[in-house]
Design a protein that fits this description.
Length: 58
């Protein structure tokens, strides 16, 4: 019984903090896709994106 309660509490904690395996895999995949797209951009396009981001921050 104690083991089930312990497992259940750790499961709920992982769900609440989005530390589940699927969530991690999805985040890693999204980061890899964004990095790949960024690598494929020309220097001018990267500079334009940086300028847009800097404008949005203010």
């Amino acid at each position: 019984v104690f083991t089930m309660l312990l497992w259940g509490s750790t499961y709920i904690f992982r769900v609440a903090t989005k530390d589940m395996t699927y969530a991690k895999q999805l985040k890693d995949y999204e980061d890899a896709v964004i990095a790949k797209r960024l690598e494929e951009l020309d220097d001018d396009e990267v500079q334009a994106l940086v300028e847009d981001i800097e404008r949005e921050e203010f």
